[in-house]
Amino acid sequence: MFRAALRSLLGRKVRLLMSTFAIVLGVGFVAGTLVFTDTLNRSFTALFASTVGDVVVEPDLTAHANEKRNAAAARKDRTLPGSLVRDLERVEGAARADGNVLDAAYVVDVNGKVMGGLGTALASNWTGAPAGHGLTGLEIVTGRAPETPDEVVLDAATVRRSGHVVGDEVTVVTSGDDGVLRPELVGVADFAEGGSFSGATWLAMTTDATQDLFLSGKNRFTSIWVTAAPGVTQSQLRDRVAAVVGDDVRVRTGDEVADESATQLLTAVSFLTTFLLVFAGISLVVGAFLIVNTFSILVAQRSRELALLRALGASRRQVTASVMLEAVVLGILGSTFGVLLGIATAAAIRALFSTFGLDLSGQPLVLGARTFVASYAVGVAVTVAAAWFPARRSARIAPVQAMRDDVAMPETSLRRRFGLGLGLVAFGVLAWVGQGVLPHPGWWVGAGALAILLGVASALPVLCRPFLALAAGLFAALAQTPGRLAGQNALRNPRRTSATAAALMIGLALAGTMSIVGESARASVDKALADSFTGDYVVQDAVGQPFAPSVKRALAKVDGVTEVAAQRWTLAQVGTLPQLLVAVDPDDLTGLFAVDRVAGEVTRLRRDEVMVSQGESARTGLGVGDTWTAEVDGKPVSLDVVGVFADTPVLKGEVVTGFDSLAGMGLPRRDNFVVVAAGSPGLLVERGIRDAVADLPTVNVSDQASYAAEQRRPIDQMVTMVFALLGLALVIAVLGIVNTLVLSVMERTKEIGLLRAVGLSRSQTRRMVTLESVAIAALGAATGLVLGVVFGVVLMGSLRDQGLDVVRVPWGQLAVFGAVALVVGVLAAVAPARRAAKLDVLAAISAT
């Protein structure tokens, strides 16, 4: 039986290889995601290992958490005194100690464009200190280190991308009052042990220059590195340093800091892995339909052969095992090519994310063992699972059937599948109905959609019959004999037709859902801004970083400007989730921000008080009199809730406090967002506003229309990315139609030969196969788009409390999807139709 199975497999190489495309594409996405994730992990691990010393000394931000401290004292808590460097140099086992100043400053390239991957732009002082474990870390590879305040060193990747060369004047933008600096580039630094800043920029100046720029000229540091002498371990040095410093200082080994930093950053970008693996799963589910179809047809074609094997003494188990062996071989083959495709996919993902600022071009792709294990496990498991039911059906062929001219494959009743499908649909509807009272409603919406999708796919062989009957009548009226034959072929095996259409249905259902979500989100943003935005212009940083309060003061002096209001914010950690804490001048709440009160007081915000949005109050239960607790900049804070305000897009966060509260946490007085109102908006006022910020390349000015477009841009980018990934599932669906038609033509070789013998022409044969393909595509498109509309409307309804209160169905876009699906049906039939038309009549009639 083993040899017979291998001979059968080799005898149908072309047919089986076609079905490997689904496995190759699905596994390719899984492998590509894992390779990209491992590359990302290696890059961040190498980066942080090369940017920490043997022992890292930092302020302990929790030391004064429960004390009421003024802003100056809070800011002082965030740094270390310069005298501590000298004390640490004298610790036993220390080779040297170096004070570090770390902040943010942006480099402008030779074309005037602000650089900084993902908004990250690092600035520090140059010390030349080695990294932990004796690693060289950053070293000067061209030029020299900075020696005067007007000199700067850049990392090699930034120099390469910016177009600067040593000796150039470099424009550097800071968020401090100094604004723009123009130092001379005197050196280029790079990682001697490998690693990169992954798209972020880095610059270094002298210690005095960075202290003047970021610490108001005080002899203080944000951290201190202590380098271990030969023979002293990091943990030994850490314990000796900890015995010298006070309780308000945190002492950790470089390994601990590197691991924690890498873990935090990888956790922050873990959504990328989840996002990509979700679409890999979608591709594999769609591919499973193709594999089921392929094995069903192949087993049907081999029915006489399998019956003969039963007549010769093969048991049911042996027949089933022979089919499963083919599935295992197919899964291994598809997984192998999938891993190769995954490497190319990882390179493509790396290139894609480099356009968003996450540049890993300097890091080679990492092929870990888990990539191969997961790829082969997934590929083989999906193939074997998909082939299981056709294999079981093959074992039910009776040996006596080998004596007949035609052998019909046993088919289970469709009633069972129909009942299962209705049960899944009912569960999905109940999940939707109950999601309003159940915990984690978003999960229930997703679970309901998945259940309904699988339920419709299961019940489709029964549900599709009226549609296919209608299509058969239409084809007969339009194409006469070829049309009637195409309709009959589609109706002959509704299980096969629906399984092929289901792959297209899934892809179009998801595409339809995303089109509704995208259009509704854009409409919600436009409505919210039209209802709530009372200003005429918005001033904000291009990469989301703060800028000096002097910008607001300059804007207030522009002729024609009547009112200016600013917002400041910081990232807070609430439990395990990040949340934006916004600070405003309380007087602006009834002014430009026009906040509507829901409960409590929203016109005053004293120190250590907050107000929360209506949506945040509904989600968390926070109300007037409660306490909002979080961790800000590593330090726990507790603020009293004094009011609840109506949701508004003008305030950038769900929790709002006053400027004094942020200052009391030691955060710098820097604005993030400024709204400007003008008595008579026009070109002269706008020109004055732009002139006021002309010296700050990172600060942009937007009117109401352009600001609305900026708010829609992330939505458009996300929808475009999702459509691109869904294209993979649609490609598999198209391959499924091609594969089904090719195998169907092979299966009906004798029938087609007889039709040709009684007068069916080659063109009519091509038309018959093409219309059958169109019927499959139309079925998949119709069911997919209907489900997409239902899913989209339900999903938007569940997001009402998130401010997305407009539901808009883009009928034009959905119509385009349907038209494209029909075109896909025509194109998918080209090769099978040509094959059917070219069959030799006599050879086809004599085929067995």
From TrEMBL:
<keyword id="KW-1003">Cell membrane</keyword>
<feature type="transmembrane region" description="Helical">
    <location>
        <begin position="418"/>
        <end position="438"/>
    </location>
</feature>
<protein>
    <submittedName>
        <fullName>ABC transporter permease</fullName>
    </submittedName>
</protein>
<feature type="transmembrane region" description="Helical">
    <location>
        <begin position="721"/>
        <end position="746"/>
    </location>
</feature>
<dbReference type="InterPro" id="IPR025857">
    <property type="entry name" value="MacB_PCD"/>
</dbReference>
<keyword id="KW-0812">Transmembrane</keyword>
<feature type="transmembrane region" description="Helical">
    <location>
        <begin position="774"/>
        <end position="799"/>
    </location>
</feature>
<feature type="transmembrane region" description="Helical">
    <location>
        <begin position="275"/>
        <end position="300"/>
    </location>
</feature>
<feature type="transmembrane region" description="Helical">
    <location>
        <begin position="450"/>
        <end position="478"/>
    </location>
</feature>
<feature type="domain" description="ABC3 transporter permease C-terminal">
    <location>
        <begin position="278"/>
        <end position="399"/>
    </location>
</feature>
<feature type="domain" description="MacB-like periplasmic core">
    <location>
        <begin position="17"/>
        <end position="243"/>
    </location>
</feature>
<keyword id="KW-1133">Transmembrane helix</keyword>
<feature type="transmembrane region" description="Helical">
    <location>
        <begin position="369"/>
        <end position="389"/>
    </location>
</feature>
<dbReference type="Pfam" id="PF02687">
    <property type="entry name" value="FtsX"/>
</dbReference>
<feature type="domain" description="ABC3 transporter permease C-terminal">
    <location>
        <begin position="724"/>
        <end position="840"/>
    </location>
</feature>
<feature type="transmembrane region" description="Helical">
    <location>
        <begin position="321"/>
        <end position="349"/>
    </location>
</feature>
<feature type="transmembrane region" description="Helical">
    <location>
        <begin position="499"/>
        <end position="518"/>
    </location>
</feature>
<dbReference type="InterPro" id="IPR003838">
    <property type="entry name" value="ABC3_permease_C"/>
</dbReference>
<dbReference type="InterPro" id="IPR050250">
    <property type="entry name" value="Macrolide_Exporter_MacB"/>
</dbReference>
<feature type="transmembrane region" description="Helical">
    <location>
        <begin position="16"/>
        <end position="36"/>
    </location>
</feature>
<dbReference type="Pfam" id="PF12704">
    <property type="entry name" value="MacB_PCD"/>
</dbReference>
<feature type="transmembrane region" description="Helical">
    <location>
        <begin position="811"/>
        <end position="831"/>
    </location>
</feature>
<feature type="domain" description="MacB-like periplasmic core">
    <location>
        <begin position="498"/>
        <end position="658"/>
    </location>
</feature>
<keyword id="KW-0472">Membrane</keyword>
<comment type="similarity">
    <text>Belongs to the ABC-4 integral membrane protein family.</text>
</comment>
